[in-house]
Amino acid sequence: MNIFYSLISLICLTALSPFTVAQDIQGQSFSYRDWEVHCSNTGTCRAAGYQPDSAQMMPASILLTRQAGAKQAVQAKVALSSDDQALDTKKLKNIHFYLNGRDFGAVNLNTSTQPLIGTLNTQQINGLLQYSQKNVKIVFKNNHYSWQVSDAGMTATLLKMDDFQKRTGTVGALVKKGAANESRVLAAQPKPMVKKVNTAAKPYLTLQPNTEQYQALHPLLMAAQPALQDAHAFCEGIPEDTVAKPQAIEIYKLTNHKVLATTLCWRGAYNEGYGVWVLDESLKGKATFVTEFASDFASGEIRSAQKGRGLGDCWATSQWIWNGQTFVKTQDRWTGMCKGFPGGIWDLYLIEAVVR
């Protein structure tokens, strides 16, 4: 079972759960071929394009960021790397940006870091956006190195960005421009503020599957499962002798007579996920489900970190904060496609918040 790709979509969908930050904007993501876009609860959209498969040895990416609201300019970052050897710092001067062979000038790059990270200026960004509906060969090069960013999927991705920010048909659209002004485009929202209430860092009770208390609690937790978006079995436990068996349940004290219950739900090639529920300290009554992708819990904070293809190529991370009454989802972040940048290269958010 490809546990990562079947479950990452569910991590994103938990943005719609009652544990999500109260918001008017629901984050959305979209990917097509070599491009992807993540738009967050603030209205900010971040679109990233990567090198084509024919240029895998020289990873390259462009990140286009645009905030919601009228008259918002697009900002652009660049990442350039090498898959087989370290780049020679003596050969990294005068890297220029080319569109269909036309030189748009030198790129502002920090050549002291690898991968190289830089920015595009206004002329370079506008030049790229002129090709939002056309085929374009995007190249960064000097006399020693050359990188290419694919245009496959760029039009569809930027169209999704326009649609999310309600710019389609307006003078500010990136793809389908129109005569309408931007008076009705999506308004930007500030990052929600969430105050964390500290709780216990260690469990006060561990229940083993063969105990009577476990057998009374486990059905209550399983009854609170979410509506599944695919065919995977919910919190089936870890296989032992080819049979999936439930794991021990740990109980942590929260506040307001509530406790957190957690148990190991699944394990894949590179990942594992714990189920988390909130219920009354009596361990009776209805349990409230939070997530089945938790990696750890401590002091009022649930964290999830799931690897993509290969060892640490890219990551999906989430965070939930206990505010004294409930767990609030304060982060849903993706580091971008697994395209040759170990650990991922960008911070692409569906949910972003400020924790105090």
From TrEMBL:
Signal peptide annotation: 1-22
A Pfam family of this chain: DUF1176
InterPro entries: DUF1176
Domain of life: Bacteria
Keywords: Signal
Name of this chain's protein: DUF1176 domain-containing protein
Organism from which the protein derives: Acinetobacter terrestris
